[in-house]
Amino acid sequence: MNIQQLKVFVYTVKYEKLYLVAKKLNIKQPTVTFHLNKLQDSLGVDLLKTRSFHSIKLTKAGEEFYKTAQIIINQYDELDLLMSDYKNLNKGSLSICSNHTPATYMILPYINDITKTHDNLSISVHVYGTSSIVNKVKNFECDIGIINSNDFNDDELIAHHFSDDPLIVVFTPDHPLNELDQITAYDLERHSFINHEEGSTTRSSIDNWTRENNIDLNVKMVSSGSESVKEAVKLGMGFAILSSTLVSAEIKNGTLSFHQIPKWTLNRKVYLIYRKGRIITPTMKLFIESLKHQV
């Protein structure tokens, strides 16, 4: 058993087509078949239910082998990347998966500062929901995750709280809520509400708050993006509960006004996360330290 055989096996399970595995590893398709057979022969265990490889179905042993083989391949690739970083000094890459608000309004200045002094670095930022980010970090599909969460804890991940991003009630300056010094849940029930899509972290927090306080909001519209919710509020369609970071510019220039959320007990935080036990490349360390020192 060798690393090439492990790679062939892992990619065969992942892509389910031998020609795709051959393309991925830059080898010929018969070589893929050779490595799959050689691996199973050397182990003395069938990992796949058929050796025709037209249909890729794992045996029970194959399922267990695949879990560990994935980790080995990922760690092998990490080692290769680590050595490349050291060999090329400032050369390296970093993949960041982030929620929308941190990606748009928080981390870009730090990325800008890093790339100014390390212009050979390649940094990519991908925007996903929190659950997708957590899964991608666990599966080595991105190096670092940036997420909004009230309290985050996961046994497989390291999490650093580096900023707060409280939610607030947001509305236009001519909205009736702006005439009040303080607002109650009853005040909110009387006006049209722009809500977030189900499954988002913000929506989950709002749903918990309404249940705990027996609040019945008058939902006028539901949107899948915070920017869309903000624009609806700016058009006067109703009020919303939004990230204070997301609307800080509009509040500063007077386009929007806000109140604190009544009976709100959650403190939304922003976390930097990465997988426990993974190798921290110099590029990862540079970004992590940058956030820790500058926030």
Structure summarized in a few sentences:
The chain has 295 residues and is α/β, with parallel strands linked by helices. The protein has 12 helices and 10 strands.
Describe this structure in words.
This protein is of the alpha/beta class. The protein folds into three domains: 3-85, Winged helix-like DNA-binding domain superfamily/Winged helix DNA-binding domain (Arc Repressor Mutant, subunit A, Orthogonal Bundle), CATH 1.10.10; 89-165 and 269-294, 3-Layer(aba) Sandwich (D-Maltodextrin-Binding Protein, domain 2), CATH 3.40.190.10; 167-259, 3-Layer(aba) Sandwich (D-Maltodextrin-Binding Protein, domain 2), CATH 3.40.190. The chain is built from twelve helices and ten strands. The chain has helices at 3-15, 18-25, 29-43, 60-87, 100-105, 108-117, 130-138, 185-189, 201-212, 226-234, 248-253, 282-294; strands spanning 92-98, 121-127, 144-149, 157-164, 167-171, 192-196, 218-223, 239-243, 257-259, 269-275. The strands form two sheets. It has a five-stranded mixed beta sheet, with helices on both faces. Helix 9 links the parallel strand 6 and strand 7. The longest helix is centred in the first third of the chain and has 28 residues, at 60-87.
